[in-house]
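Now for a concrete sample entry.
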Amino acid sequence: MTYPRTFSHIGLSVTNLEQAVDFYTNVLGWYVIMPPTEIKADDSAIGVMCNDVFGQGWGSFRIAHLATGDKIGVEIFEFRNSEQRENNFEYWKTGVFHFCVQDPDVEGLAAKIVENGGKQRMPVREYYPGDKPYRMVYCEDPFGNLIEIYSHSYELTYSAGAYQE
């Protein structure tokens, strides 16, 4: 039988692990489960798993594990020779291009993201102008990872058909 699975975690790649941990704990309030740790290519269980995922020759990387208020995990990776993309928003290519958090103070959280080295990509917009107070905005963390902010839950936002005229 098919049933809706729960979301476990997401992995983000950054160029500075300590800065990312500081950003996500201070700006989004996420908490550290495992502080920054180095993982090396070796015969350990995690080393073998990483060979399966990254292939041979990855050498080492650093990782920290955080969690959100609703217990979703966030793995933050800093790979050797990591680099920030020139164009971090190639939305027409497959893959995850953003994640979304919920905060009733969309404007306040967007401002806090900007104050802490991130970027606001657009003005705050309403889904149902003049009818319902559902708002959203796209921002970026200091590494170019896209963060969408919703004022209300995903289910509330879309249950009434947000794209109807």
Observations:
- The chain is about 20% helix and 30% strand.
